[in-house]
Amino acid sequence: MVIASIDLKDGRVVQLKNGKSLVLERDDADALIEEFNRYGEVAVIDLDAALGNIDKKGNTKNTELLKQLLRKGNVRAGGGIRSVRRAKELVALGAEKVIVGSAAWNVDATEHSNIINAAFLEELASAIGKQRIIIAVDSIDGNIAVKGWTETANVPLIQGAQLAEKYCSELLFTCVEKEGCMNGTDMALVQQLRNAVKCRVVAAGGVSSVAEIASLQKMGCDVQLGMALYTEAVSLKDAFISCLNWEKSPLIPVVAQSVNGDVLMLGYANQAAVAKSFDTNRLTFFSRTRNMLWTKGETSGNYLELVKLRADCDRDTVLATVVPHGTVCHTGAFTCFSGEAAESSSAGKLYDIIAERFSHPTPGSYTATLDNARVREKIMEEAEELCSEAQTKQDIVWEAADLFYFLNVLMYKESVTWKDVYDELDRRHRERQ
Q: Residues 388-405: pLDDT tens digits?
């Protein structure tokens, strides 16, 4: 699949040619990640950190922006990750994976067998898990490039990749000579790399067309795109569609899942249906019965608002994350896998209801009357009742439900989401591993 890249320098989004010459810069990182995340993972790279432009606290001009972006999508973070502590910090802030470059290599090693920084990588894998580690195997003239591509290590690309594979879940290969040039990547070199290792390989540097992306996908490689997206030479919609396995079947199963985790329905889509889903932001399928496209809700009005699409590991099934507007099943049930007419209770559902009450208050709505001071008072009251007065199981259920409601109200008013809470719990869990 395609991974869109957001490269940061001096607090702005940039694209560089060969990692050096500035080609373009912009200030819409938030809008970019919102758009890019609809199609797949997003790589956020701190170029200043990669180049060593950091202050005494280890921060760069991109640090605050990087922190904001890490919680806004399925993000892999890279640039200047030279310590286990830094990698753990990025994971705690929301990065799903980290990209390690120069720190993975013993640049001054004289023997090829000693070129990999095994001690660091073993410690890193122990701290965050091998599945979260991506090692950059960038090359200049066929040798591993390091230090922001300003130097090369004493090891050929293929040999270095084979040594690195032991410590990571995937390799990110950038052909530096091709980076930002928009004249295609080195397909032969990518093929050599793909044949040499078993882990996931992501190719970057010079990729400039949907046809090239499709060819790389057939090799078994994913693609990281930068310049081609920013210059609109490639659209993520077309790239996403080209990466799916249409040779296996002209119709691909699409599983619709709510943002709160409910599996809603299963349908099938051809290429036109996937394209229409992206174009309209409403999930569209291909009807095998009527032999035509149909957008969910065309007749009933109960449509599925598209948040993002993700392909599975075999690229022959798609998971659609959606916001349901109305019931989903033709029977009137909320999902096609349940007879209930309403969405099951969950933290996310309650949060959504509270948000609706504040956004569109109705006459007599108690929720809409709660200000910050009052909701905090109620949390203290309900917590006291739960601890002091609840004696039976039913008492505890009743009081816990009251406390949970007021907690949700406070969270909404302070712009704290359940994802923020879950991320914090994940961070604490990882720290104790």
A: 988 899 999 999 999 999
Say which DSSP state 235 is in: -
Q: In sequence order, which residues have a C-beta less than 8 Å from that of residue 271 and are 6 or more positions away? A: 241, 244, 246
Residue 280 phi, psi (nearest 5): -105, -10
Consecutive H or E run containing 222? strand 221-225
Indicate the pairing of strand 292-295 with strand 284-287.
antiparallel
Cα separation of 341 and 334, whole Å? 5
Residue type, 204: A
Q: DSSP letters along 320-339, please?
A: EEEEE-S--STTS-SSTT--
**Rounded to whole angstroms, how far apart are CA atoms 137 and 195?**
15
Instruction: Answer for the pair 162, 201: CB distance below 8 angstroms, yes or no.
Output: no
Alpha carbon of residue 31 to chain centroid: 15
Give the chain's count of helices (H) and strands (E).
Answer: 15, 19
Indicate the pTM of the whole model: 0.82
The kind and range of the H/E element at 23 are strand 21-26
The C-alpha atoms of residue 362 and residue 352 are separated, in whole angstroms, by: 15
27-62 pLDDT, tens digit per residue, is 999 999 999 999 999 999 999 998 888 888 889 999
d(CA 281, CA 255): 16
Query: CA-to-CA distance for 387 and 402, rounded, in angstroms?
Result: 13
In order, the DSSP letters of 48-88 are HHHTT---TTS--TTHHHHHHHHTSSSEEEES---SHHHHH
User: 261-275: b or e for each residue (b if 16 or more CB lie within 10 Å)?
Assistant: ebebbebbbbbebbb
Phi, psi of 187, deg, nearest 5: -65, -35
**How far, in Å, CA of 6 to CA of 236, rounded?**
14
Per-residue CA distances from 298 to 170, 267, 292, 304, 337 (Å): 42, 15, 13, 10, 21
What percent of the chain is predicted at pLDDT more than 70?
97
According to DSSP, residue 343 is labeled P
**What average pLDDT score do residues 290-299 get?**
94
